[in-house]
Amino acid sequence: MSSSLRRGVLAAAAIAFSVASLAACGAGNDAQTLEIKPDNAATSVGNIKIQNAIVITQPDLESTGPAAISATFFNSGTTAETLESITLPGTGKEAELKPAKGGSLSIPAGGSLVLGGKDNATAMLPSSREAVRDGNAQKVTFTFSKTGDVSLRAFVVPAKHYFAEWGPTEVPAAPGGSASPSGSPSGSPSGSPAGTESPAAGETPGGHESPGTPTDAASASATAGAGAGRLSPRRTAVRKGGTSWEVPPFAFVVRGRLTARTCSPGRGP
């Protein structure tokens, strides 16, 4: 065997040995990473394992509505188990359990049960502010049909942000809020305000009399409010060349000029 071939064999053997030694450092049954526990409450007794246990209160501190208990249960046994009750030791409070629509509170063998959240089973604590306080680690006891009592400490958090969709479905309004008026006032004011008279012909609403013999410009300004092509609601006096003209009611006025028939000089309509 040549020297170059021997060097190649030795290099390959060295690489294989290093790979084998590194593989021996892999995670085993007693790896340190297995000793790390998550922040959320979790425990196991017998075939039952509980994960993500948490108590979720109302989002408003002033609200006295119910709180929800959320958790996930796993059954590693060969027979099904049923969640029978959830209590808070030392408070005298017990959660009201309700299965999901068309489901039950049974944990099948090799299966799981989710408590809390949309379309899942629920556990509600009435008058939660009397039993739990946000930020505490509340002791909670779960009772199963075969395993019995399993206790742990679950964090108490308000139903905000991520926990909103897992919190209580009933969120009453906070007390002390101002009530909004209901309905609308009935009826409407009838008639015109007392003591107010309609201006007579030849007077303006402000109480100032208009000149008895207005000029053409004054007549045009008096009828400008009616607009071009609209009906004039009252008689309008027009003076031109020393002769008084009276415009009949509802005569058309276009740019200050009469477009309907008028009366003869000195005569009424």
TrEMBL record:
Compositional bias of type Low complexity: which residue ranges?
A: 173-202, 210-225
Enumerate the residue ranges of region (Disordered): 173-248
PROSITE patterns assigned to the protein according to its UniProt record, in alphabetical order: PROKAR_LIPOPROTEIN
Q: Which Gene3D superfamilies match?
A: PCu(A)C copper chaperone
Keyword terms, alphabetized? Signal
Family matches, as InterPro entries: LpqE-like, PCuAC_sf
Q: Is Transferase one of the keywords?
A: no
Top-level taxon of the source organism: Bacteria
So which residues are the signal peptide here? Answer: 1-23
Protein known as = Lipoprotein
Lineage here is: Bacteria, Bacillati, Actinomycetota, Actinomycetes, Kitasatosporales
